[in-house]
């Protein structure tokens, strides 16, 4: 990996270092262009949302960041390094961890074994630190502690989402990528999931969140980007975007 040139100065004078930066990302699926020069930054300790409707390119963006989809042009910088040509598994070992869309739990494995798979590529220095991390995940997700011996495929949708996030946290992410964590969940469960995401961020984990649920996402984020048909059309402080009439009309159904 090559050392990064000096990071682009943040426009809002936030002194925190940039952990993740995407520069002019272009992605194709065959002849179809899915991303058209998308750029974003995530600073240490932030919760940043990438908001957009179905087909806007959000999941493509996450796949490009995590290394599962190659860039046609542009670059991805993580923790001061250009990782654009680095394989997905190496990005994981460096601390760029994703809880994927659709949860992707191992249905025949127990909750504990699913969580253990999260740290497969991120070895702990000692058994004590490993145990502390597992205990922390169970404290963050008490429901998982209650079901530690239950197989993943028998959990409810909300519990599977908790398991997917917990598995990602076992890898000790420097940046946690969350792709549509509210998808397919009941409103009460969605509120619970977002409360947990806020708590995780409040404890120091940097988060890039991809979402369609504007109310929940913007009300809990520091900043946000609006993605439409593969382009960033708006960006700014999340509270400001939440008050914006055009955003409210497009994503909240109110004018």
Number of helices: 10
What would you call the structural class?
alpha/beta
In percent, how much strand structure appears in the residues? Answer: 25-35%
DSSP strand tally: 10
Q: Would you state the CATH class of the largest domain?
A: Alpha Beta
Strand order of the largest sheet: 6-7-8-3-9-10
The low-confidence runs, each spanning 5 or more residues with pLDDT under 50, are 1-10
Q: What is the averaged pLDDT score?
A: 89
Shape: globular
Fill in the CATH topology of the largest domain: Rossmann fold
Number of domains: 2
Give the C-alpha Rg: 18 Å
Estimate the helix proportion, in percent. 25-40%
Strand count, sense and barrel status of the largest sheet are: 6 strands, mixed
Give the SSE string: EEEHEEHEHHHHEHEHEEHH
CATH superfamily of the largest domain: P-loop containing nucleotide triphosphate hydrolases
Family: Belongs to the ABC transporter superfamily.
Keywords: Amino-acid transport, ATP-binding, Nucleotide-binding, Transport
Domain ABC transporter: 20-254
Protein name: ABC transporter ATP-binding protein
């Amino acid at each position: 990996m090559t050392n990064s040139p000096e990071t682009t100065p943040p426009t809002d004078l936030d002194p925190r270092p940039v952990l993740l930066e995407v520069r002019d990302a272009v992605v194709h699926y065959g002849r179809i262009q899915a991303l058209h020069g998308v750029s974003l930054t995530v600073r240490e300790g932030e919760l940043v949302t990438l908001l957009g409707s179905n087909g806007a390119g959000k999941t493509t963006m996450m796949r490009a960041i995590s290394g599962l989809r190659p860039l046609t042009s542009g670059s991805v910088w993580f923790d001061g390094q250009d990782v654009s040509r680095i394989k997905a598994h190496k990005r994981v070992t460096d601390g760029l961890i994703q809880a994927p869309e659709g949860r992707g739990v191992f249905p025949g494995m127990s909750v504990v074994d699913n969580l253990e798979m999260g740290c497969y590529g991120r070895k702990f220095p000692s058994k004590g630190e490993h145990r502390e991390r597992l205990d922390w995940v169970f404290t963050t997700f008490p429901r998982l502690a209650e079901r530690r011996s239950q197989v993943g495929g028998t959990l409810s949708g909300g519990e599977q989402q908790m398991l997917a996030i917990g598995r990602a946290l076992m890898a000790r992410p420097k940046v946690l990528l969350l792709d549509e964590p509210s998808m397919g969940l009941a409103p009460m469960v969605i509120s619970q999931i977002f409360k947990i995401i806020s708590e995780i961020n409040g404890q120091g984990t940097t988060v890039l969140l991809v979402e369609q649920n504007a109310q929940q996402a913007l009300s809990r984020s520091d900043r946000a980007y609006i993605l439409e048909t593969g382009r960033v059309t708006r960006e700014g402080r999340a509270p400001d975007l939440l008050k914006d009439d055009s955003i409210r009309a497009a994503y909240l159904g109110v004018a």
